[in-house]
Amino acid sequence: GSSVHAHALSQQGEHAHPMGRRGHGVGQPGLAVAQCVADISAAEFVSLDLEFSGLFLWPEGGQRPLTLGEYFRRCAESVPCFLPLQLGICCVCRREDGQGWELRAHEFDLWPQHRQIFSADLQSLRFLREHGFDFNAFFERGKQYARLPPPDAAKCTKGQPLPPASCILQAIREARVPLLVHNGFLDLLHLFDKFIGGLPDSLEEFAQIWTAQFPVLYDTRHLAQEGRYNVLKHAGGLSLEALHQHLRPLTRVHADLRHTGLRPDSFAHGSSGRDAVLTAEVFLMEVELWVRHWVSAASARKRRRMEREEDLRQSLEALDWQGVHARARELGVGLLRAAGVGRRPVAEIRADVFAAECSREGALDDGSGEEAPMCRAVLEDPTGHPALAGAPLERFHRAFSVFQNRLAVVGASPGSIHLGEPTK
């Protein structure tokens, strides 16, 4: 799409930005930011969403999908040229009665503290305007942001005021709370570039620095990609709206949710605040369906194993003593008594053959679905209803470790990026 260039002027610029006169500068975070910081400190998960002034400097070209390295370089070239215009935060915490979740939603327009030349894609701006983004209010109420001090300098800079929006990212970094995004690779790159530092040259270096400061992340699009047909039973698109619409009637999670702070219906359609709420809800609904799938798969495997064992038992019972001895020799089961004098009873040999056959089948099992026992024990209440809200979260993260720090990627191959294992 067409793009334009603009200057973002801070209070220190030649002409003071209007929000400088409205108390949005350094040292004056305001009640909304303070409430958001408090909610982050109490959250089990925090979902994030950003709206940008544009996505890419150049349209996608070529017939073949990009490699992950090429895709990272394309993104890294574009991200510094565009601004994040709006930040949506949804803090997910347990209800006090343990019967569900409380979603505390926040939305902030963003403005760089320091003078910056940026690009704006007219198609992106038109999309925002069509979905209710108020550019006049944006210039009046935007919260300033700047890069945070490095984590190792936090003690030295403690007490020094930060721009309001930077206080939010600082709170997330200090809490080390698990993050939720939907197709969020660009969101992460913008957060890194605007709040952490210049983007590294390689995807590997970016991943290492990111996970050191934000150790755990889940991407709802990746969870959907991995279980699109067999878990979510979904043949439609994987956009946030499409997933939310499909999953809501399939799960019971929405009945346990209570929204506080700004209600999601107060956000404009497609705004960052609304999308952050939808991301949190989609995540909780996906978790319920994955738990059901794992528990169901474990039950089916147990049923098949019992059927195989019964077939094996009957086949062994049908063998005469010669057949039992032949099978025992194949499996290495001893025929002689412990003292080495005389043969063991056929019934005793048959029982050992049965045990050896069962053990061999267990060793050949692919081990898939090992999460199921943990899901059954930890993520279900006594009635069999998924109750993640009552589960110890460290056990939840172990059960869902296969999804940790994996981001969906559209336009590159393979279709996901693994940022690495969580940093302690």
Automatic annotation (TrEMBL):
Disordered as annotated region, ranges: 1-24
Compositional bias segments (type: Polar residues): 1-13
One example GO MF annotation: RNA binding
Top-level taxon: Eukaryota
Pfam families: CAF1 (PF04857)
Gene3D superfamilies per UniProt: Ribonuclease H-like superfamily/Ribonuclease H
Family in the record: Belongs to the CAF1 family.
Alphabetized PANTHER family for the sequence: POLY A -SPECIFIC RIBONUCLEASE/TARGET OF EGR1, MEMBER 1 (PTHR15092), POLY(A)-SPECIFIC RIBONUCLEASE PNLDC1 (PTHR15092:SF22)
Protein name as annotated: Uncharacterized protein
The species this protein was found in: Alexandrium monilatum
